[in-house]
């Protein structure tokens, strides 16, 4: 929302206000800054990239097992209780729990 400043004179006059002639109401245009990309679109980019990486690495390339665990850095966002928010840390690789094969993301 935009802030509309109202001018209020410091001196109060005892004169009665003069009636103004009624006219059509006017709409004041406000400039919008459209040169920035909205925040939710930037967020969607990294969320989609993360989902694609997880989807592409669902199976182990060595034994085709689906018991794959993602390896993440501890750089995720923290909530109010200083706990990691799931899905916000960086995925750096994957590890198969069957054959212990590791591969990069």
Task: Tell me the layout of helices and strands.
Elements: H1 39-56, E1 68-72, E2 91-96, E3 102-104
Summarize the structure.
The protein is α+β, with helices and mostly antiparallel strands and 105 residues long. Helices cover 17% and strands 13% of the residues. The protein contains one helix and three strands; from the N terminus they run αβββ.
Structure description:
It contains 1 helix and 3 strands, in the order H-E-E-E. The protein is an alpha+beta fold. The radius of gyration is 29 Å and the shape is elongated. The mean pLDDT is 81.
Features:
single chain; 105 residues; alpha+beta; three-stranded antiparallel beta sheet; 1 helix
Number of strands: 3
Rg value:
29 Å
Average pLDDT confidence is 81
- Structural class call reads alpha+beta
Largest sheet: 3 strands, antiparallel
**What would the principal axes of the Cα set say about the shape?**
elongated
Instruction: Please write the string of helix (H) and strand (E) elements.
Output: HEEE
Instruction: Work out the helicity level.
Output: 10-25%
State the oligomer: single chain
